Amino acid sequence: MHLFLHYLFMKYLLGGIKITIYVTFLGLFGGAFFGIILAGLQHSRIRLLALLAKIYVGIFRGTPLILQMVFAYDALPYIGIMLPGIFAGGLALAANEAPFISELIRSALSSVGNGQVMAGETLGLTKLHRSVYIIWPQAFRAALPGIGNETISTLKNSALAMVIAVPELTLRSTQLASSTFDFFSIFFAAGVWYLVLTGAVSLAQEGFERILNHEGIKSNKKYRFMSYFSKNTWRKPEIADSDLKKVVNQVNMQILESRSNYADIRDKAPGNYIEIKNLHKAYGGNIAIANINLTLPTATTTVLLGSSGAGKSTLLRCIGLLELPDGGSMRIGTRTFSFDSSKRSFYDADKMAEERKAGGITVVFQNFNLFEHLTSTENVMLALTSSYKIPNKYARDVATEALNSVGLKSHANKLPKHLSGGQQQRVAIARALVIKPKVLLMDEPTSALDPESVNGVIDLVNVLKGNKDLSIIITTHQLKVASCLGDRIVFMNNGGIVESGTSDNILLNPKNPQTIRFIEAFQ
């Protein structure tokens, strides 16, 4: 009889545990839903919506949860909304958790550098692909400890639902203790069950952290999962998989053919692949570049030379369609752009992505902007699998070959943080070259490197100059880089072009006093 009573008591407590888990589930996922909406409202350009979101946060952060539960259960019926206790408790928990989850989401997303997002844009990744492959994997990993804490907090706070007669674990423990007068045993058992539940959450959090650990999951499994987000349009080549050269050629052909959706690859661009007229750009009234007129011959290397703040990087980003000029016009290959205030809405992010893809434009950034959660191979193959729909198996072969061509075959499975600056720069170059660009833009490619790595990058770019289909534009303030790599030099100062010409003419026989002073200062 005694064992039977214990069995009934335990069954009664287990029923309360189920309700506790259910209320926690409502509170946590409801909080996540409201939190996402709240995060968007707080950053809304509509001031009224942003103000309402701030008022909401102030109310639910500033009042006790127990009062919020009582309000949801007892006050809402006065306006015609009647909720069962379980749903009222879950709603109150969700409303209380929303501000905290909103901040968790915001901080996690902000932990992913804008440079990585920009790198994804230059590789042709759509907004969805950037979210799936770059932003959310890193943001979720950054948010995971906070998610675990909020889950445990919601689980414990669900006990407050007893005040609105929700028969969760704490209320049922209280009822049992009141009827048996065995307070210690029953509340001790309830405490053990709470520890079991919170312990399960902690173990789940630890398991997810191991799975999402950049160094703890094999890359092939990671990419197999990620590939489900991308539709495969590959036409399988009728060749042996072991013939790497044919695989590379087939991949290259598909990349070029995919651009025909935006521009006919049979169109012959003029001898000058890039032509710029009266281009200007300002930030908050401060002029970055002004009245830029420039013609860049196809298959040449042009160096934009000048000190910091001269406007070199701004001009490079405008050419790369990462910045929208305020006025002027630009032709890249067969594509012509006219910029003015009336056409700004025409050049949205998707339009720019199409134009970069059509023109074969890509960028190697000053800070490399490698995807920190992906290995060298995965960094290089991401554009192939997402933008150009190449299957992982073939993309990996091509990425391996690209890394081998820049001398990094032995570093293929390393994360960016395990590579030196020079090695990261080489991975960034391989990642840019694998999509067969027509224009390679390099922003201060040697500024963050030691002298030995500088020499390595110079040697690599000199090899790239042998590609007669590739035009290279480099920004730098280093005379060594300009003299070793530049076919043409464009000297800039205060947002304008001071002097331009062949490398020998500018560096050995400058005409403008500003150019002369700059060269003398760095010699």
From TrEMBL:
Residues 274-519 form the ABC transporter domain. The chain crosses the membrane at residues 20-41, 48-70, 76-96, 181-204. Its main location: membrane. One of its GO terms (cellular component) is ATP-binding cassette (ABC) transporter complex. PANTHER family: AMINO ACID IMPORT ATP-BINDING PROTEIN (PTHR43166), L-CYSTINE IMPORT ATP-BINDING PROTEIN TCYN (PTHR43166:SF35). It is a multi-pass membrane protein; Peripheral membrane protein. The keyword tRNA processing does not apply. Keywords: ATP-binding, Cell membrane, Membrane, Nucleotide-binding, Transmembrane, Transmembrane helix, Transport. This is Amino acid ABC transporter permease/ATP-binding protein. Belongs to the binding-protein-dependent transport system permease family. HisMQ subfamily. PROSITE patterns: ABC_TM1 (PS50928), ABC_TRANSPORTER_1 (PS00211), ABC_TRANSPORTER_2 (PS50893). It is found in: Cell inner membrane; Cell membrane. It comes from the Bacteria. One of its GO terms (molecular function) is transmembrane transporter activity. Residues 17-205 form the ABC transmembrane type-1 domain. Pfam families: ABC_tran (PF00005), BPD_transp_1 (PF00528).
